[in-house]
Automatic annotation (TrEMBL):
Substrate binds at R94, R100, N133, R164. Catalyzes the reversible oxidation of malate to oxaloacetate. InterPro entries: L-lactate/malate_DH, Lactate/malate_DH_C, Lactate/malate_DH_N, Lactate_DH/Glyco_Ohase_4_C, Malate_DH_type2, NAD(P)-bd_dom_sf. Coiled coil: none annotated. The keyword Protein transport does not apply. It comes from Rhodoferax saidenbachensis. It catalyses: (S)-malate + NAD(+) = oxaloacetate + NADH + H(+). This is Malate dehydrogenase. It comes from the Bacteria. GO terms for biological process: malate metabolic process; tricarboxylic acid cycle. NAD(+) binds at G11, A12, A13, G14, Q15, I16, G17, N107, Q114, V131, G132, N133. Residues 159-320 form the Lactate/malate dehydrogenase C-terminal domain. The active site is at H189. PANTHER family: MALATE DEHYDROGENASE.
Amino acid sequence: SKKPVRVAVTGAAGQIGYAILFRIASGEMLGKDQPVVLSLLEVPMEKAQQALQGVIMELQDCAFPLLVGIEAHSDPLTAFKDVDYALLIGSRPRGPGMERAELLAVNAEIFTAQGKALDKVASRNVKVLVVGNPANTNAYIAMKSAPSLPRKNFTAMLRLDHNRALSQIAAKTGKAVADIEKMTVWGNHSPTMYADYRFATIKGESVKTMINDEVWNKDTFLPTVGKRGAAIIAARGVSSAASAANAAIDHMRDWALGTNGKWVTMGIPSDGQYGIPKDTMFGFAVTCEGGEYKLVEGLEVDAFSQERINVTLKELQDEQAGVAHLL
Ligand code: NAX
């Protein structure tokens, strides 16, 4: 049988933590033949650590055959020791009356510390996914704080936006989600993201031709996908958790196990393609194989798409500029 891998999850006692840990432990992320050790990080506060103990009791009570170890931590330096995968979910949400600059600053502090800890103690091949918002900028900060790890090991989660786009297209066309290929989302995980179905196909047929409605794209599809998180908060009273956890599972599974040539969306550090400045943590279409993602290159960018890409890029550059003095 396979050697166990170490999986770190931060914010493990939170909503998304509760929705993701049981799925990782049951083998949905890394395969039904891959034993895992869960290394769980929460803030040191007693309430959080106590809640974490409760989650651990429940994990134990599932008696998952693949779960060969569970650890509770309050320090990233111990939590990230030798980890092969790190899901950075915990972050500081925006409190009432909190300014954007303040939000960026507290999160910069968290992700600087966690990036440094990964740099020091994680496996040199660690695959890092940042979910905690602002996800792209937090991933950028962690990457910049871990100079001895390859840049490509740091990614941000755009997969929820990607999956939201897939389900909207399936509903619009009356076709199965499973048959949609070549969907992508460009840019920041925020309402400015640009979900792009121009290249998408369903059983070889062009989705754009099938829908043939630019007004729907601009006035219905993009706002629906962009504001979906807010719609869920309005309906549920709390933010998306199960769907976010599901997207994180999809992201890591595809990265680790491959996509068989299918496109998925990941936030990755740019190497300058599509005019996105190097290191910008940007959502792109990728394929995954052999534990590596590969950017889909050479896609045509028309005027409308360029305009959208410019908007989401500008937002990301402003966020990056807002934390530059902290790095
Ligand atoms: P919760 O508030 O339920 O849980 C967050 C947990 O993280 C808390 O238990 C908290 O104690 C812990 N935490 C805070 N700082 C920490 C640190 N420095 N180290 C370790 N743990 C820490 O939030 P939840 O609903 O689970 O969401 C978590 C994050 O995901 C939020 O930032 C949220 O905005 C973000 N999201 C990102 C999405 C994406 O697509 N990228 C979508 C869903 C979600 O909104």
